[in-house]
Write a structure and sequence with these properties.
This protein is α/β, with parallel strands linked by helices and 297 residues long. The protein has 12 helices and 14 strands. The chain has a domain of 193 residues: NAD(P)-binding Rossmann-like Domain (Rossmann fold, 3-Layer(aba) Sandwich), CATH 3.40.50.720. Strand 4, helix 4 and strand 5 form a beta-alpha-beta unit.
């Protein structure tokens, strides 16, 4: 199979591309920065420039699936300028990809990512793929992001994974979570009662592969572990695995003071269940957070 990845030089893309190569798929990455793409993914078939629409159209014609991972990092500080980049980089790029797919009139699989930020902060409410969206900044991005993907032609199998907190030892959220524990200053964030919906990078990559090859996957898929956990229990799990104390909680007001609006990323409560993946009997390797942390730390 030939797979085109948009934004494959990011954290998830690097792992996904490696997995696809390992199972003998052809992988081409599309990026704004061709040198970054080549440095990040030296093992893939080819690297294309995002705005070379004619070349992209030709490659879409003989591709089996397109994976859209493009987007300015949400973890960056939420300044007015960065928030615009976070929004525009997702919606504009997705609109561009959809337009190319529709021009090609090729029947293929389109996996266009979203995030569990779609749901907003919902306390203890159990959230499944059919749950309603929230009303904050992240919800707005995700709602419009998914609307852009849904403009694709009806002959396209569209899958929209709403990705949770990705646990990976060298990038993303986990290294930042572990640092205070390494300094013997770890503790819960805010009340600790907020729900965290997470997934080990290996399970996430395997789920992407399953979405590519298994046509039973259609529409929204919550890309999370079957076992969400409160921040307090997550903190205890890190403490246990690292054999470090969890004695320095960070109060909510301090997080808001330090992080501003982006404190929502650690204070929002989202108890998300992967109903679709469960119904298709997806085989998680790391269902419990302690298993995942033991593997990564």
């Amino acid at each position: 199979m030939k797979i085109l990845i948009f934004g494959g030089s990011g954290n998830i893309g690097k792992f996904l591309a490696k997995k696809l190569i390992d199972i003998n798929f052809e992988v081409i990455n599309i990026s704004r920065n061709i040198n970054k793409s080549k440095n990040s993914l030296p093992f893939i078939s080819n690297h294309l420039v995002l705005k070379d629409s004619q070349t992209l159209l030709q490659n879409i014609q003989d591709s089996d699936a397109i994976v859209n991972l493009a987007g300015f990092p949400i973890s960056e500080k939420w300044t007015a300028e960065n928030k615009k980049l976070m929004y525009d980089s997702r919606i504009d790029t997705t609109n561009y990809i959809v337009d190319l797919i529709n021009q090609s009139n090729k029947t293929l699989t389109f996996i266009s990512t979203s995030a569990i930020g779609f749901y907003g902060s919902r306390q203890d409410e159990i959230l499944q793929e059919n749950s309603s969206h929230g009303n904050d900044f992240m919800s707005k991005i995700c709602v419009d992001w998914e609307k852009s993907a849904k403009k694709v032609n009806e002959n396209i199998r569209l899958v929209i994974p709403r990705i949770g907190i990705v646990l990976e030892k060298n990038s993303g959220a986990l290294p930042k979570m572990l640092l205070p524990f390494k300094l013997f200053a770890g503790g819960k964030l805010g009340s600790g009662r907020q729900w965290m919906s997470w997934i080990h990078i290996e399970d996430l990559v395997n789920l992407f592969v399953e979405m590519i090859v298994n046509d039973k996957y259609n529409g929204v898929v919550n890309a999370v572990s079957p076992n969400p956990i409160t921040n307090s229990d997550f903190t205890k799990a890190i403490s246990k695995v690292m054999k470090r104390p969890a004695i320095a909680p960070v109060p909510e007001f301090a997080l808001k003071l330090i992080l501003g609006e982006s404190s929502a990323l650690v204070l929002n409560s989202q108890k998300v269940i992967p109903q679709v993946a469960n119904s298709h009997r997806f085989d998680y390797k790391f269902e419990e957070v302690e298993m995942a942390l033991s593997d990564l730390i």
